[in-house]
Every structure is written in C-alpha cells, then in structure tokens.
Design a protein that fits this description.
Blueprint: H1 2-9, H2 13-16, H3 28-38, E1 47-49, E2 57-62, E3 66-71, H4 98-108, H5 114-125, E4 134-136, E5 145-148, E6 151-155, E7 162-164, H6 172-175, H7 179-189, H8 193-214, H9 219-234
Antiparallel strand pairs: 1-2, 2-3, 4-7, 5-6
Helix pairs in contact: 4-5, 4-8, 5-8, 8-9
C-alpha cells in the first residue's frame, strides 16, 4: 500500500507544489480517502493514528488487525529503484559520511569518548566493502521487528530495501542486543571482521549525528542514540 498510495498522493494539487524536502501532511482523512479509492473492501474500517509514528513516515490503524504506513516525503519515490542511492543511503560507502561523522565528534567533545569513537570510525573506513552487492533491508531496528510468544514472527518496513553492502543490517547488534546476545548473534552469522567493523561504523555514525543535533532538543531520540553509541564504544568487537 505504501508506494501505491504515494503515487495517489501526488495527484493532489497541494502536494505538487512542495519541494523534495517538504514533509507531506498525512492525516486520518487522507488515509481514509486512499483506502476508499484503492481498497474499497476495507472502506468501512475506522482509521486512527498510532501513538508514535516513525522518523519519516506516518502510521495508522486500519480496523483492529491492519495498519497503513505511508512515507512522509517525496524523496521516497526513488524507493522503486533497487540500487543503494538517494532513497537508501545505508548500502553505500561509509566514506560518504566521513565529514559528517567528524563534525559530530567535534560537537560532542567530552560528552563521549571521542578517542575511542575516532578509532572505531577509522577502523570502519579501513574495512571497505569489496564483495558482490547483495539485497539488504536497510532498517533492521527494534520497531521493525514483530514478536509473538517471544519469537520473531515478522520484519516490516522495506522502504529502504536495496542492493549494496549489507553491513547496515547488523545495527541491532548494538542498538538492541546486550553484550552476551551480541556475541551469540555474531557467532551465528559467522560474518567477517570487515563487515562487523562497518556495522559498528554505521551505528556510531548515526548515533553521533543524532546526539550532536538533538541532545538538547529531543530527549527521546537523544537517549536512544546515546544508548547505541555507548554500546559501540563499550564493546570490544
């Protein structure tokens, strides 16, 4: 429903005038209209927003058993392309984000162990992706993993799906798992030292830029980023 609905959104004149960086206003009335026009069998189901939507998407309950999840910016149109690039920045080289990472290090100063962070970031840059590109999800995060009876039952949010370096999909090793679980996760995957180093690099980069920009303004996001950064800096591998 995501891409199909996005195309429908563009038919509205008030959206055509927006720039590529302008968030799209998405509310229950608009979602109701999209469902009625594209999935009339569900037109009578109530539409209500979830308590907390994603970083760059809006999610709504459709009845009691379904959800509608819509991207909130025009740039997601590029998600129909399979290669990493504009719509999915995670599958490319970490070197693209080097200047941004080092700027974040300078801003954070004594708020984190910048010496160790620099060493981990440099190690990630010195472990380039040289294998054949493969499919990756791009956002394996706690909020995108569905659990039933204590077991993983589904993975959602394929808006960043592309072909490239899968190291970004290792992020949950530091954002979700504790040290013991992280070691078991790595042993089960049997991945190389290089991809593990890049995975740490991705988590560190994202955590640092969020901390550097939101530490004084968004307590929830900053706390999550701080947890990820501390996990990376505190881990031996």
């Amino acid at each position: 429903m995501v891409l199909r609905s996005l195309r429908t959104l563009w038919r509205f004149e008030w959206i055509r005038g927006l720039s590529s960086d302008t968030p799209v206003r998405i509310d229950s009335a608009l979602v109701k209209l999209l469902v009625e026009s594209q999935f009339p069998v569900w037109a009578d189901l109530p539409v209500t927003p979830v308590a907390l939507s994603g970083w760059d998407n809006r999610t709504f309950h459709l009845g009691e058993r379904m959800i509608v999840r819509l991207p909130s910016g025009r740039h997601y149109a590029a998600a129909v392309a399979p290669r990493s690039g504009q719509h999915s920045f995670r599958g490319g080289s970490l070197k693209i984000w080097d200047r941004q990472a080092r700027s974040a290090l300078a801003v954070l100063g004594d708020k984190i162990d910048t010496d160790r962070a620099t060493a981990i970031w440099d190690a990630a840059l010195n472990a380039p992706f040289t294998d054949e590109p493969v499919w990756y999800h791009g956002d394996i995060a706690a909020g995108n993993l569905l659990v039933r009876d204590g077991r993983l039952c589904a993975v959602i949010d394929f808006g960043g799906l592309a072909v490239g370096d899968p190291a970004c999909d290792l992020a949950i090793a530091w954002t979700l798992l504790d040290a013991t679980s992280r070691a078991a996760f790595r042993a089960r995957l049997d991945v190389s030292d290089a991809i593990w180093a890049r995975g740490r690099g991705w988590v560190l980069w994202k955590g640092m830029i969020i901390l550097a920009n939101l530490i004084e303004t968004n307590v929830i996001e900053a706390a999550s980023a701080e947890h990820a950064v501390e996990a990376v800096l505190g881990s031996m591998s």
